[in-house]
Design goal:
Helix content is about 60%, strand content about 0%. It is mainly alpha-helical.
Length: about 40
């Protein structure tokens, strides 16, 4: 896999994950605690 293709795939994954998180927040889903980082209420 060349560097450009890998970078494009990383950017696409980042974008998809961001959209997925935003949709979950809009639907009032809770976010999992990751590495002891959690959303403050």
């Amino acid at each position: 896999m060349n560097k450009n293709k890998k970078k494009l795939q990383q950017n696409e994954l980042r974008s998809i994950l961001k959209d997925w998180i935003l949709l979950g927040l809009q639907l009032r889903h809770t976010l999992p605690v990751i590495d002891n980082i959690q959303r403050l209420k």
